[in-house]
Amino acid sequence: SGLALQKMPPLLAPRGMPGVTHKATTSQHRQNSKHALTSAQKICNEIVTTYTNGCNMTSFCDKLNAADRTLLDQIRQVIKSADKAVSEREAPIMSAKDALLYEEEGVMKYGLAKTKNGFTFHTMVMYVHQDIAAYAKTLAGTKQQKGCLNIGDLQKLDIGAFAELMRLSAAKDFSPVVAHYKNKRRSTPR
After folding, report:
1. Distance (Å, rounded) from C-alpha 165 to C-alpha 25?
2. C-alpha to C-alpha distance for 112 and 124, rounded to whole angstroms
3. C-alpha distances in angstroms, 174 versus 10, 22, 78, 156?
4. In this structure, what are the phi and psi dihedrals at residue 110, rounded to the nearest 5 degrees?
5. CA distance linking residue 105 with residue 83, whole number of Å
6. Residue 28 φ/ψ, nearest 5 degrees
7. Fewer Cβ in 10 A, N or C end of the chain?
8. Contacts for 58 with CB less than 8 Å, ≥ 6 apart
9. pTM of this prediction?
10. CB atoms within 10 A of CB 11
């Protein structure tokens, strides 16, 4: 997909991640365990500065285990790399308080939320483009509901297939949806 994912230390990298080896010895694991913890903390801190334009998402990251933080960072990198039209901020989505909202011109396009049973990825693109919805059904490690993908275990998400979903989604014309919601806001009495 042309997307360069960050190489992770062996203790943090999910099995099967392209470009990551898992042939570390026990002494290497012991040596890397301290590095892994500080690396996860650094990743979370980098998320705050790199992806949020000043929004503080440390509270969101602090609620996740190290492996989920790493995968969440990769998912965020995929979203931001694939779809340059969106901006990210922390905001509740539906009933989920711990969530990241991705907006195009102030209109929700995607959302990623922590749920009781894992994570959910909301995509408005699936509502208006049936080919995207059809592709999303093929993603391993997810269960589709209307405009969202429920992810019980981030470790089981095929990041390559998710990156392709994002590439396909970003290529779709989302401007009619943006125009619809902007017009709806203007016509709603305050």
Report:
1. 36
2. 12
3. 39, 40, 18, 29
4. -140, 160
5. 13
6. -65, -40
7. C
8. 44, 45, 48
9. 0.67
10. 20
Closest of 184, 162, 190 to residue 108, by C-alpha? 184
Q: Which residue has the tokens 């483009």?
A: 129
pLDDT of residue 65: 83
Burial class (CB in 10 A: 0-12, 13-18, 19+), 160: middle
> CB atoms < 10 A from the CB of 75, how many?
21
13 closest CA partner among 64, 58, 73, 99: 73
Mean pLDDT value across residues 173-187: 88
Tokens of 153: 């275990």
**DSSP character string of the chain:** ----PPPPPTTTSPTT-TT------HHHHHHHHHHHHHHHHHHHHHHHHHHSTT---HHHHHTS-HHHHHHHHHHHHHHHHH-TT-EEEE--BTTBSSEEEEEETTEEEEEEEEETTEEEEEEHHHHH-HHHHHHHTT-TT-EEETTEEEES-GGGS-HHHHHHHHHHHHHS--HHHHHHHHHHHHHS--
Q: Tokens 């500080």 — which residue?
A: 38
Residue with tokens 């979203």: 79
Residue tagged 């401007």 (tokens): 175
Give the dihedral of Cα atoms 98, 130, 172, 169; nearest 10 deg. Answer: 40
Residues shown for the chain = 190
d(CA 112, CA 67): 16
